[in-house]
Specification:
Helix 8 packs antiparallel against helix 9. The chain starts with 6 loop residues before the first helix and ends in a 6-residue tail after the last helix. The chain has a single domain, classed as Orthogonal Bundle (Tetracycline Repressor, domain 2), CATH 1.10.357. By secondary structure, it is mainly α.
C-alpha cells in the first residue's frame, strides 16, 4: 500500500508529540512504547518503522521540544526586558507548575537525563548551552563570561524552583518557592536589553 507523501513525517510528529506530553507528565521510564503508540493512535508494531529504539525517541523528543522552547524564547526575548519578565512570570506560575505535560522540558527531563546514555545527555547539553547563549547575548552589562554565568544561573534558578514547587506536598510552600524564585529572577534580569 502506498501512502501520500509526507504521511510518515506526520506520523513521526504525532509519536513525538505524544511522547513529549507523556514523558513530561510521567517520566521517561514510566512510559511504555505500547501505551505511547496508543496515545498517538497507532499500533505498537509501527513504532520501529519510525525509531530504532525507545532511546532514539527520547533523544528526538527531547531535541524537538527544546527546539520549540528555544523558538518561543527567541520570540519573547526580541521584546526586550518586558518579554523576559513575562517569561519569568509565566514560567514560575501556578499554571506552569500544575501542567507539566505542556511545560518546560528542562524542568521535566533534567533529573532523568542524568541517567540516560551519553548521546542523549550530549543532545540535552547542546540545547541547554544554546538557551544560555541566547539569554546571555541580551544582557547589557559585564563581560561575555559573566553574562553567560548569569544566564546559566537564571536557567538553573527557574528550572530548579519549578521542580521543587512540584515536589513539595505543602501548597503554601510551593507557592512561596515560586514567589521567591520570581523575585530573584526578576532581580537578575535588571541589566537585560530594554
Amino acid at each position: 500500500m502506498r501512502y501520500e507523501k509526507g504521511r510518515k513525517d506526520q506520523t513521526r510528529r504525532r509519536i513525538i508529540d505524544a511522547a513529549a506530553k507523556r514523558f513530561r507528565e510521567e517520566g521517561v521510564e514510566a512510559v511504555g512504547v505500547a501505551g505511547l503508540m496508543a496515545d498517538a493512535g497507532l499500533t505498537h508494531g509501527g513504532f520501529y518503522s519510525h525509531f530504532p529504539s525507545k532511546e532514539h525517541l527520547v533523544r528526538e523528543t527531547l531535541t524537538t521540544v527544546l527546539d520549540r522552547r528555544h523558538a518561543r524564547l527567541e520570540e519573547s526575548i526580541a521584546s526586550g526586558r518586558a518579554g523576559v519578565e513575562t517569561i519569568i512570570a509565566n514560567y514560575l506560575s501556578r499554571n506552569h507548575r500544575d501542567n507539566p505535560g505542556t511545560g518546560c522540558p528542562l524542568a521535566c527531563f533534567a533529573g532523568e537525563i542524568a541517567r540516560r546514555p551519553n548521546e542523549t545527555r550530549t543532545a540535552f547539553t547542546d540545547k541547554l548551552k544554546r538557551h544560555a547563549e541566547l539569554i546571555a547575548a541580551h544582557f547589557t552589562s559585564g563581560p561575555e563570561a559573566e553574562r553567560e554565568k548569569t544566564a546559566f544561573t537564571l536557567l538553573s534558578l527557574m528550572s530548579g524552583a519549578l521542580q521543587l514547587s512540584r515536589a513539595v506536598a505543602d501548597p503554601d510552600l510551593s507557592e512561596t518557592i515560586l514567589a521567591i524564585a520570581r523575585q530573584s529572577a526578576l532581580e537578575m534580569v535588571k541589566d537585560f536589553t530594554n
